[in-house]
């Protein structure tokens, strides 16, 4: 099993036969891979997600939804973008102009920079850092100061209330999220995302399978991470920072036009990042279940392997994104004291139990998963 | 590894460029208008805003932030230990690392219990002050 390669290395090896491109240094390929991922994956996702969310909402509520711009309204996001770009720019004259301008930067950078360490495929990891998962957790936290700065700079009471809620909520749910990833670190013994995915295996042979069914505690941890991720990304039922029925629009009340668009983009991209992290650590990342594309009968070219990996990864991630959108029309919003109670009195103790439980499981069963133990017990 | 942080650097640079790029395109496209009348006022459902929102806010945010920092520092300390755990288990001395993890988690639980008992985790800290009298519509 060869090591997962960085996207830049892959691009360099693909183009090594071509005349001009082969002269490009590695850092140039790194820049090109970053450009590609951000402009061809992250930003189109952010745009399309707004359309898809409205379409899903319409389906769930038995409406038609956007259907005017293009076939089945698919170009709605382009129309929205044009509208946002053409809107009058508004910076509250009484507010703090500097902080107000800085806020979308934090939100967008926090969401987009996390893509650097997402394992989109074995050969498509932007940067397979040895602190990969830690990097993603820490970078996405940049969104919290962004929301707080923006709400403070708006000089608006609704914004301030929303921003304070956002800060308290994102900061609090950071703890269960980090604790819910910890069992995977205990199981994998590494923070490198590529290695975490590789170790999860494809279920046949040595019975290594996805971390979600490694042991009973990881199943609970998966759901903790999902719930924590919902709260981190301010999605319903945790969208208190922008609760429109009580705070008008919360932290983005004074944001309009493209500034609001950037906030919305940051949030949707963050939902993608959260789902991608879940896929990576618990759902086997790019691995197909029961079917190993890397060790196929005939060795496949890296291009095809990369494409299959990417498709599998995106399928799992987008399914989770769909569940997030589905939940929006299923659950009512929590109250702010329930929110904090759920985090500190429910999820944090449960996550601590999970960490201890997984450690105990690893120690007693010498790192074997539930599936391996069952296979051994039934003579598999 | 050698390309790792170069790539991260590029991601940061390009992500930071997205914001001025989008706002710049918007600047080219949109009409440039001065705020008219009360347009520049903060939105308060149509009323003129009363007082500044820049006030000293409630201390409960401060306690939550302190609790968060303690937990976060502990988490940063537990991650390296957790990373070592698997190799220690396979090498046969998982007990030692397990004890260490248990110590970390025990400290966190003790801290959480302390906050819980003290009531720092309650969002609503009880309603103080004289009880409001029922308003009678005269």
Description:
The complex is a heterodimer of chains A (380) and B (138). By secondary structure, chain A is mainly α. Chain A is 64% helix and 0% strand. Chain A has helices spanning 7-14, 26-60, 76-86, 97-113, 132-140, 143-153, 157-188, 193-200, 216-232, 244-247, 257-282, 302-328, 336-364, 370-377. In chain A, helix 1 (7-14) crosses helix 2 and helix 7 (157-188) runs parallel beside helix 13. Chain B has 138 residues and is mostly helical. Chain B has helices at 4-29, 60-91, 94-118. In chain B, helix 2 (60-91) packs antiparallel against helix 3 (94-118). The longest helix of chain B has 32 residues, at 60-91. Chains A and B meet through helix 1, helix 2, helix 3, helix 4 and helix 7 of A and helix 1, helix 2 and helix 3 of B.
Per DSSP, what share of the residues of chain B sits in E-state strands of 2 or more residues?
under 5%
Helical/strand content category of chain A: mainly alpha
Q: What is the CA-CA span between the terminal residues of chain B?
A: 76 Å
Note the quaternary state here: heterodimer
The average pLDDT of chain A is: 83
User: Based on CA inertia axes, which overall geometry of chain B fits?
Assistant: flat
Topology pattern of chain B, helix = H, strand = E: HHH
User: What is the overall silhouette of chain A?
Assistant: globular
Q: Describe the main β-sheet of chain A briefly.
A: none
- Provide mean pLDDT of chain B, rounded: 78
| Weakly predicted, low-confidence segments of chain A | none
Short note summarizing the structure:
The complex is a heterodimer of chains A (380) and B (138). With 380 residues, chain A is mainly alpha-helical.
Which tags fit this structure?
heterodimer; A: 380 residues; mainly alpha; 0% strand; B: 138 residues; 3 helices; 60% helix
């Amino acid at each position: 099993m060869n090591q997962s390669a960085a996207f830049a290395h892959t691009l360099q090896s693909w183009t090594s036969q071509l005349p001009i491109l082969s002269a490009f240094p590695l850092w140039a390929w790194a820049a090109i891979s970053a450009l590609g991922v951000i402009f061809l994956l992250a930003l189109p996702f952010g745009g399309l997600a707004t359309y898809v969310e409205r379409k899903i909402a319409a389906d769930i509520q038995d409406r038609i939804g956007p259907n005017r711009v293009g076939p089945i309204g698919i170009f709605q996001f382009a129309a929205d973008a044009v509208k946002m770009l053409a809107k009058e720019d508004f910076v509250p004259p009484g507010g703090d102009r500097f902080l107000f301008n800085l806020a979308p930067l934090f939100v967008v950078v926090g969401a987009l920079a996390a893509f650097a360490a997402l394992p989109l495929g074995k050969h498509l990891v932007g940067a397979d850092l040895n602190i990969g998962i830690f990097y993603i957790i820490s970078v996405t936290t940049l969104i919290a100061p962004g929301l707080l700065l923006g709400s403070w700079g708006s000089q608006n009471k609704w914004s301030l209330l929303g921003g304070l809620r956002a800060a308290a909520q994102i900061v609090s749910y950071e703890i269960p999220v980090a604790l819910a990833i910890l069992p995977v670190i205990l199981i994998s013994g590494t923070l490198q995302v590529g290695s975490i995915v590789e170790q999860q295996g494809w279920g046949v042979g040595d019975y290594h399978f996805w971390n979600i069914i490694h042991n009973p505690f990881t199943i609970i941890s998966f759901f903790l991470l999902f719930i924590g991720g919902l709260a981190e990304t301010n999605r319903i039922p945790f969208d208190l920072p922008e609760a429109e029925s009580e705070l008008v629009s919360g932290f983005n009340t004074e944001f309009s036009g493209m500034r609001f668009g950037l906030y919305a983009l940051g949030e949707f991209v963050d939902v993608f990042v959260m789902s991608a992290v879940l896929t990576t650590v618990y759902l086997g990342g790019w691995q197909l279940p029961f079917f190993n594309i890397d060790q196929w009968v005939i060795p496949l070219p890296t291009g095809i392997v990369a494409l299959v990996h990417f498709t599998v990864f995106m399928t799992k991630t987008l399914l989770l994104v769909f569940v997030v959108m589905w939940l929006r029309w299923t659950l009512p919003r929590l109250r702010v004291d329930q929110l904090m109670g759920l985090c500190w009195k429910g999820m944090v103790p449960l996550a601590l139990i999970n960490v201890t439980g997984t450690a105990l499981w690893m120690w007693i069963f010498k790192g074997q998963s539930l599936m391996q133990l069952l296979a051994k017990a039934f003579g598999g | 590894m050698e390309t790792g942080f170069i790539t991260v650097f590029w991601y940061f640079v390009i992500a930071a460029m997205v914001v001025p790029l989008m706002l710049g395109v918007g600047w080219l496209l949109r009409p440039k208008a001065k705020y008219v009348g009360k347009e520049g006022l903060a939105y308060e459902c149509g009323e003129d805003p009363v007082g500044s929102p820049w006030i000293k806010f409630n201390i409960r945010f401060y306690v939550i932030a302190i609790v968060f920092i303690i937990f976060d520092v502990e988490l940063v300390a537990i991650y390296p230990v957790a990373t070592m755990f698997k190799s220690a288990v396979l090498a046969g001395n998982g007990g030692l690392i397990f004890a260490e993890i248990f110590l970390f988690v025990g400290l966190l639980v003790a801290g959480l219990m302390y906050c819980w008992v003290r009531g720092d985790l309650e969002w609503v800290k009880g309603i103080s002050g004289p009880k409001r009298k029922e308003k009678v519509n005269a």
